TrEMBL record:
The keyword Membrane applies. This is DUF948 domain-containing protein. Keywords: Membrane, Transmembrane, Transmembrane helix. The chain crosses the membrane at residues 6-23.
Amino acid sequence: MVIVYLSLVLIAAAIIFFVISMMKTAHLMNGSLAKISKTGAKLQDQSAKVVKESEALTVNLSRIQSDIMQKKGKVQDTVNQAKQSILSVQVAVCKGKSIYNTIRASRVQR
């Protein structure tokens, strides 16, 4: 009969130690879960900041691209005007030479 009582005491002690161990583990897990929650919140904040910065950079990029396209168009217009001016000068020079040659020829015939 003593063995039965000792077995019951041993089982009760094992259950008590198990409960104590489980409570310690639960306490440690709560602290770890709180740290994990804080870390998750920080990650969400950082990802939100990255998204906002990405959107701002996208807006800036589209503004820069638009500005480049406008300036490119202005440069192309300027180049085309310069080409047209060169052609006009060449035509004027040719006409001037033609007139000069005509005047010169008429002086020679006199």
